[in-house]
Amino acid sequence: xxxxxxxxxxxxxxxxxxxxxxxxxxxxxxxxxxxxxxxxxxxxxxxxxxxxxxxxxxxxxxxxxxxxxxxxxxxxxxxxxxxxxxxxxxxxxxxxxxxxxxxxxxxxxxxxxxxxxxxxxxxxxxxxxxxxxxxxxxxxxxxxxxxxxxxxxxxxxxxxxxxxxxxxxxxxxxxxxxxxxxxxxxxxxxxxxxxxxxxxxxxxxxxxxxxxxxxxxxxxxxxxxxxxxxxxxxxxxxxxxxxxxxxxxxxxxxxxxxxxxxxxxxxxxxxxxxxxxxxxxxx
Amino acid sequence: xxxxxxxxxxxxxxxxxxxxxxxxxxxxxxxxxxxxxxxxxxxxxxxxxxxxxxxxxxxxxxxxxxxxxxxxxxxxxxxxxxxxxxxxxxxxxxxxxxxxxxxxxxxxxxxxxxxxxxxxxxxxxxxxxxxxxxxxxxxxxxxxxxxxxxxxxxxxxxxxxxxxxxxxxxxxxxxxxxxxxxxxxxxxxxxxxxxxxxxxxxxxxxxxxxxxxxxxxxxxxxxxxxxxxxxxxxxxxxxxxxxxxxxxxxxxxxxxxxxxxxxxxxxxxxxxxxxxxxxxxxxxxxxxxxxxxxxxxxxxxxxxxxxxxxxxxxxxxxxxxxxxxxxxxxxxxxxxxxxxxxxxxxxxxxxxxxxxxxxxxxxxxxxxxxxxxxxxxxxxxxxxxxxxxxxxxxxxxxxxxxxxxxxxxxxxxxxxxxxxxxxx
Lengths: 283, 424
Fold this sequence. Notes:
- The complex is a heterodimer of chains A (about 280) and B (about 425).
- Chain A is an all-alpha fold.
- Chain A has one domain: MetI-like (MetI-like fold).
- Chain A is built from 13 helices and no strands.
- In chain B, the strands form four sheets. A six-stranded mixed β-sheet of chain B has the order 6-7-8-3-9-10, with helices on both faces. Chain B has a four-stranded antiparallel β-sheet with strand order 2-1-4-5, sandwiched between helices.
- At the A-B interface, helix 10 and helix 11 of A face helix 4, strand 6 and helix 6 of B.
């Protein structure tokens, strides 16, 4: 085989790139690390400070606002189940990881989507990068994350951001591109600035699609945060990982159930806000 | 100063647009240029001026460049070469900020598919131009509500566009354009997406609004009926070029080429031609102070059996038929008395479409009198003229020699006075 004759050292290249980055960008990683750690810890202690009952009440109210009584009761009951399984601290830890990772992913992804919607060239450059981010097996991100940020919550969040970001950029771009060009023209014809057209016309009209992206980002973040339990990110992921390594089916199931409850809650809440945006647009 | 002036405008899409314009100026055809430079020449050498208060219609099939041309007027498609002047101000020389100012204050636009903001109420839609201009909230609500009142949507301010029918949605589009008080209104196929009935209703509403507002309107359409109904002047476009520019009468009378002629054949003349376009010089006419014998003499001379009776200032006071006059002479009257009064004479205004002249004409023995608001007699329309015009013949029918019909798109209709056919 001719193609066997020379081994392409892709891995070596990546290694040396990673080495270079650890040597030269340490200050950057340290800064990011400190920032993210403060954010996660702050949020986590905020969620753990009041009694679990208070937090259950808050999520129940959110659920009521989003979907009404039935969903509110279901949410309160299922969060109470988490607490009664003795997984409350882990669940709040996971929730704070998901919220921080999703926020960062949205803060980076939505502006990327906006730029991509306005520039075909940027869009065609961004697309393969997003494809790579989405299709690369998620575990692979954990390796450089550990190299750059060590063990703990920060590498977990960083890997999660990378994994969860693509839908934010993709669906923002899609949503903006789907806005009726004549409506955008109407904005322009009356002398509106590009910024005003973006904020008052395009984004409001693209909001249902952007909200679908937000929903996907949060779901992906949740699934990745569980995997990040393997690198010491803690939370429900750590519980599940412990269950797997000890072949403890019961423990694994409890952790898994906790994740399912969080997933259903986050999904329904974000989907409900998406629906609301959709109703506003399609009068 | 004209409201809008377009000078030598070319708009070519594609990377080599400038080279394409040079080739077009050198006399190459659109196809040659498109092939050689891989561009799309959309507007080629357009020049015209539009006066204040005029409805200027650009007519052409899809792909003829009419929508591009109208977007050149507010620089949504900046011309590749040439200049566009609004109120004497050259738009090409403006900075982006100045251009936005012109768009928010001087030119507004109405779109084919309405281009409404579905997430805003009808009032917020109408207020958009004012919001862009940073008019204070209270004032902009007031002015937007006023514009909605003009188009007959006063009660709909808090609805959303999606809750309205197509015709009503386009009224919102029109209100949005009127609310900014811009002098120039660009209407891109504004009524094309509407049902035929709603469409002619909107056309009539636009005409009546225009009588009060006196905007300068540039109206784009692919429908020559609509063009002729609305337009003071019409520019007909084909493959990027303006092939004929003139009034309805000029285009009907002398289509510039076969392309225009094909369009003209489908035109509903009864709706696009007005009384003033076909009326004739009132020759069978007599002053009121002249007596019955003078009237009889006049009838003999004109070989007619009816006369329009006017006062010294040519205002219509009535009509006299031969029976009346003979009776007056027998009874020894020396004045024209007991005439048909002015109200009894079938009459129409100069802007009455011919379709509305048919019934008055059919019910009257005398030719239709065309009078202005003061009842000044402008002309008459004998029934035979009306039938002749609507039958698809030229506006002055039989007298027209073949070489006159093919005259270049200029001369307005001159109706040769036809004696002796006043009474049918």
